[in-house]
Amino acid sequence: MIENRMMKYDLVIAGGGAAGLAAAASFIRETKQDGGVSLCILEKNDALGRKINATGGGRCNLTNEACPGKNITLDFFRGLGIETWHDSEGRYYPYTNKASDVTKALADAVCGADVRCGFTIKVISRVKPDDGSEGYFMITGTGADGKMDMIFADHVLMAMGGKAGPQYGTTGDGYTIARAFGHSVTTVFPILTGVSCGAEGVDFASLKGVRAKGTVILHKDGKPIVRDTGEIQFTEDGISGICVFNLTPHIKADKREKFEDALQRFTITVDLAPDFTEEELAARESAFGILTEQLAAVFDGTDVSTIKNWQLKIDGVKGWRDAQATCGGVALDEINMDTMESRLVPGLYFAGEIIDAQGPCGGFNLQNAWETGIKAAGAIAKGIKKGDE
Ligand SMILES: Cc1cc2nc3c(=O)[nH]c(=O)nc-3n(C[C@H](O)[C@H](O)[C@H](O)COP(=O)(O)OP(=O)(O)OC[C@H]3O[C@@H](n4cnc5c(N)ncnc54)[C@H](O)[C@@H]3O)c2cc1C
């Protein structure tokens, strides 16, 4: 039995990021008629939504015209007073272009909940009382004061994110908890990040900071598998930029293959002049004028048309700190995707990057977070209402 002095919440949301806050705001909205419904948000950081503030270069690319569920997101944010606009590539941003405004609107919307920032969840377990009464969840962790604490709930929503950007609080804690409940977690690796690479005779350090428009093509075993066009940014040891990020989900090992071995099978070719034909380039004396002086110097003494087919050898993919998303996560076939409830543990729900769902750059990952959070909140609220009837 729970001691009387211990409060049991209807819902505890583990993680106050994009998915957790969208769920909390929706839950509050859906249950506002049902006085007495209780909600607690547990967040490791000292403030809610720290990663949201960093998204979209501080502008928060919150969904994309190509997302089938984009209207769920747009309606949700309109309900919070956040208007949006989209660029020519279909990327939606808040009208003010400020990611922190999105976080503020969400934080304002959840002010009716018990929000406990600085709370690091360590264990979540299901308690089954001997007296045959309904089970409940016990969440154990350390509070802002560093002391162990326990919180109880009828429903738990796991919205603890993945492993990308650990500096924002996401260190994969949710996977350990999901596994302890018997859930499978598919192999996770960092994606939407830069690539370390090299080309013969090129000192990449000298190109650091150079930008160029280009098409990047990823080859596996010599065959092109994915391509993207956009701004390529040169780093001290390779290339970065959205078009490069979008190659990284495809740079992965096959089952039982070591990642280092798999890397040998991938190469990148770069077309640094996608708007020009080879003939047009062959007629030029230099690549300067299409490329900046520093980058053009790399091709001095060669046929200018080689800038359309520049071969790069991949040395590695940047790690979790630089990654914008996680590939892999809690297996989808163990989750009812209509309600986001675990198929293994009644009352346990998942939303956001913790699940094995990932998209390219452009608002797709935040869309997943908002949409699954809103869906879970709706299902939990409905379940509570049914239980009250
Ligand atoms: C720099 C950057 C820029 C990005 N830009 C975009 C963009 O513009 N558009 C886009 O679609 N996607 C973008 N993404 C990806 C997007 O931010 C994530 O996919 C999204 O935030 C995932 O939402 P989430 O709620 O699942 O996880 P998160 O937003 O990461 O939230 C999880 C929360 O859980 C908390 N938590 C974790 N462990 C514990 C614990 N043990 N106890 C308590 N709390 C815990 C974390 O502190 C965190 O606040 C970007 C990512 C990064 C890193």
Question: What is the element layout, followed by pairings?
Answer:
Layout: E1 8-14, H1 18-31, E2 39-43, H2 50-54, E3 63-64, H3 70-79, E4 84-86, E5 91-94, H4 99-109, E6 114-117, E7 120-127, E8 136-142, E9 148-158, H5 173-180, E10 189-191, E11 195-198, E12 211-220, E13 223-235, E14 238-240, H6 242-245, H7 259-263, E15 266-271, H8 278-282, H9 293-298, E16 310-317, E17 325-327, E18 335-336, E19 341-342, E20 348-350, H10 364-388
Parallel strand pairs: 1-2, 1-9, 2-6, 9-20
Antiparallel strand pairs: 3-5, 4-5, 7-8, 8-9, 10-17, 11-14, 11-16, 12-13, 12-15, 13-14, 15-16, 18-19
Helix pairs in contact: 1-4, 1-10
The chain binds flavin-adenine dinucleotide (FAD).
Which features characterize this protein?
single chain, alpha+beta, FAD/NAD(P)-binding domain, 7-stranded mixed beta sheet, 6-stranded antiparallel β-barrel, 10 helices, binds flavin-adenine dinucleotide
Structure description:
The protein is α+β, with helices and mostly antiparallel strands. The protein folds into 2 domains: 8-189 and 325-388, FAD/NAD(P)-binding domain (3-Layer(bba) Sandwich); 194-318, no CATH class. It contains 10 helices and 20 strands. The chain has helices at 18-31, 50-54, 70-79, 99-109, 173-180, 242-245, 259-263, 278-282, 293-298, 364-388; strands spanning 8-14, 39-43, 63-64, 84-86, 91-94, 114-117, 120-127, 136-142, 148-158, 189-191, 195-198, 211-220, 223-235, 238-240, 266-271, 310-317, 325-327, 335-336, 341-342, 348-350. Strands 1, 2, 6, 7, 8, 9 and 20 form a 7-stranded mixed sheet that branches. It has a 6-stranded antiparallel beta barrel with strand order 11-14-13-12-15-16. Strands 3-5-4 form a 3-stranded antiparallel sheet. α1 runs parallel beside α4 (99-109) and α1 (18-31) runs parallel beside α10 (364-388). The longest helix is centred in the last third of the chain and has 25 residues, at 364-388. The model has no long low-confidence stretch (mean pLDDT 95). The chain binds flavin-adenine dinucleotide.
